[in-house]
Write a structure and sequence with these properties.
This protein is of the alpha+beta class. The chain contains 19 helices and 33 strands. It binds one RNA strand through strand 12, strand 13, helix 8 and helix 17.
RNA sequence: GCUAGCGUAGCUCAAUCGGCAGAGCAGCUGAUUUGUAAUCAGCAGGUUGUGGGUUCAAGUCCCUCCGCUAGCUCCA
């Protein structure tokens, strides 16, 4: 006898083995039709899966209204896609087919190279399968039995996974839909007919089991929704996002460029982009001074010997610009990071505990030879400037300093209105051998970090094992770009390694008159100016707040008759410290306004005969429109206040 | 680096089966002197990413290299 307890407290009893679909049917035929899955003791199961023969289970029926139901639908759609591909092409080996943030993919190994030209054909076959509306069916199997089963089907990737990838798991589950069957944990929607709308999006390569040394599979991406309007809205959103891509806006707004003749991944900051960066540098510099940092400037190249001591040189050899060898045999490396140089500043004289914490800051330019396929606009480049600093402190000061770094990063992000980010604690993967330093140091560092972060109110704080730097654990501020890719911006990293005996052997004399070892903190609130500004362009869709706008005001004359007064206004704005330009073309005022609107200039000062007579300007706000005429002095005061407050206007 | 796709004027894009490289915007010149999102006319702009091949003929087909895009791998 099985007792099924429903969420509303009612219960049903069964003396035969039942499935969720049976229970839904007993409650009502309409519910049976709408039920996609069931939740039993926190686990989702399929509608056709058998419940236990006896005992008591709490059961919740899942319909399309459940937010997680979309995942279920997409995973089922992935199976439908794989089925269509297998129907259309020969020799298809199945790999994995999970859901991702906005859709799903399936990996295949097959002779035919898939391309977008194949999409209509595959989509048509998928539509046929959806129309056929066959049920998904769960099959349980002993693992060895499954090895034979997939072996008979010539699915060698599945056999390999069953033999090597599943540990000592004894039984596995398969899902079958018509002639298609795959190893799958499930659950699935009851039948394919539930899939209301789907679309294939792209095809790309992916390594078997994410290992670059193994064979490459073809990964087919798609997405699915319960209804067509939802799909269309999603596709529309993707189009909108493309419009705010920093690479597109960077060109349109003349912010930056990359010239392949100079080198891939090497960014030119054009005058307008440089203006934005300059404002950000000023802002950060002020914060550094306020928070007790001491700015330094250090060389952008250094003797290879230095990086051998730090351990970077042999370790990251492949992703560095190769060293320059001089006639005397000395070798110099374009620096891939600033830390060793700041360490040399620390070492330039004996240090006392009274010097600590020593906070050395530098907008330091570094170069790394990233693989060509990893380059991306401003977000992944080969030369970039970090808003870097290194804090040398005592063991006792670590928690407080680390906290200070996190607070500064939060302050910076808040000032810019960047509130959508998550904080990732990158810890060591104990199974890997890529880390240096004693297990004891790692344990201490990770504990300290977790404690400090836990005390603060950090958004979406989560731990990821294996995400640590090779020398210590870190806290990364991760922001998603307009098409959903995640980028690490700010970072705070703890380092017990570089100060150690094996590396630079840093010391300070304590109040007990004996030498002690300092701890190092690496931190960069922006990460790099390149990546940060790339994200900011997308965040603001190119419409920077007044204090950052490359061009803050455009003066425009209604007629060239008042050009003289216009130029006087422009001069006064320049003298008041604003970035300003003037439009004295023989165009209609409507055309000038349109051009300024498209250039996303925050303020337009319109000047005609009336203003010229009264020493006024007609102020137009890019977002709010015409604000009417006011004395020039009042307009300047208004702008000053807005710049000082670093106001971020909601669109 | 790997897999796939793409590369035409400064930008966005055309060019049917391999048959005279073209438009809009931007630029320049002239006219127009304008009141809150596009005044009109004209001019100029190209070794179709590079190098090679096939062909009577290549933007179009094939190969090489370079670059870009998506994903994978990587990210001190």
């Amino acid at each position: 006898m099985l007792k099924v307890i429903l969420p509303d407290g009612k219960s049903l009893e069964y003396s035969r083995r039942v499935r969720p679909i049976d229970i839904a049917a007993d409650i009502g035929p309409r519910l049976a039709k709408a039920t996609l899955a069931a939740e039993v003791e926190g686990q989702w199961i399929g509608v056709h899966d058998l419940l236990p023969a006896e005992g008591e289970v709490a059961l919740r029926l899942i319909t399309a209204k459940d937010p997680k139901a979309l995942d279920l639908l997409r995973h089922s759609c992935a199976h439908v896609m794989a089925r269509a591909v297998m129907r259309l092409f020969d020799g298809v080996q199945l790999a994995f087919g999970p859901t991702v943030a906005d859709g799903f993919y399936y990996d295949f190994q097959m002779e035919h190279a898939l391309s977008e030209a194949d999409f209509p054909k595959i989509e048509a076959e998928m539509a046929r399968i959806v129309k056929e509306d066959e049920a998904f069916e769960r099959v349980e199997m002993d693992r060895l039995e499954a090895v034979k089963f997939f072996g008979d089907l010539n699915q060698s990737l599945k056999v390999e996974h069953l033999q090597e990838g599943l540990g000592d798991q004894a039984a596995v589950s398969l899902y079958r839909q018509g002639e298609f069957v795959d190893l799958c944990r499930g659950p699935h929607v009851p039948s394919a007919g539930v899939i209301g709308a789907f679309k294939l999006l792209s095809v790309a390569g992916a390594y078997w089991r994410g290992d670059a040394s193994r064979q490459q599979l073809q990964r087919l991406y798609g997405t699915a929704f319960f209804t067509k309007p939802e799909l269309e809205e999603h596709l529309h959103k993707i189009e909108e996002a493309k419009r705010r891509d920093h690479r597109v806006l960077g060109r349109q707004l003349d912010l930056f460029m990359i010239d392949p003749d100079v080198g891939s991944g090497l960014v030119f900051w054009l005058p307008k982009g440089a203006a934005v960066r300059h404002e950000l540098e000023n802002f950060l510099y002020g914060e550094l001074i306020r928070r007790g940092y001491q700015p330094v400037n250090t060389p952008v190249i250094g003797n290879v010997h230095l990086y051998e001591i730090s351990g970077h040189f042999p370790y990251y050899k492949d992703s560095q610009f190769p060293p320059i060898e001089m006639a005397d045999g000395e070798r110099y490396l374009l620096r891939p990071m600033n830390c060793p140089h700041h360490i040399m500043v620390y070492k330039s004289r004996p240090r006392s505990y009274r010097d600590l914490p020593l906070r050395l800051a530098e907008f330091g330019t570094v170069h790394r030879f990233e693989q060509s396929g990893e380059l991306n606009g401003m977000t992944r480049v080969r030369g970039f400037t970090q808003d870097d600093a290194h804090i040398f402190c005592t063991e006792d000061q670590v928690a407080g300093e680390f906290r200070g770094c996190l607070e500064m990063t939060q302050f910076v992000l808040k000032t810019l209105g960047l509130n959508e980010y998550s904080v990732r604690l990158g810890f060591r993967d104990p199974a890997s051998d890529k880390y240096v330093g004693s297990a004891e140091n790692w344990r201490r560092a990770e504990e300290a970090l977790e404690r400090v972060c836990g005390e603060m109110n950090l958004p979406n704080l989560h731990i990821e094992r294996g995400e640590a730097a090779f020398y210590g654990p870190k806290a990364d501020f991760v922001v998603a770009d307009c098409i959903g890719r995640e980028w690490q911006l700010g970072t705070v990293q703890l380092d017990y390694n570089l100060p150690s005996e094996q590396r630079f052997g840093l010391e300070y004399i304590g109040d007990d008159n004996t030498p002690h070892r300092p701890v190092m903190i690496h931190r960069a609130p922006f990460g790099s100016f390149e990546r940060f500004v790339g994200m900011l362009i997308e965040h603001f869709a190119g419409a920077f707040p007044l204090w950052l706008a490359p061009e803050q005001v455009r003066v425009m004359v209604v007629s060239q008759k008042v050009e003289e007064y216009g130029r006087a206004v422009e001069r006064q704005l320049t003298e008041a410290g604003f970035r300003v330009s003037g439009d004295y073309r023989a165009e209609k005022i409507g055309a000038k306004i349109r051009d300024a609107q498209l250039a996303l200039i925050p303020y337009m000062f319109v000047i005609g005969g009336r203003e010229a007579e009264n020493d006024q300007v007609a102020v137009r706000d890019r977002v709010e429109g015409d604000l009417g005429a006011m004395p020039l002095a009042a307009a300047i005061e208004r702008l000053r206040a807005e710049v000082a407050a670093k106001t971020v206007k909601k669109k």
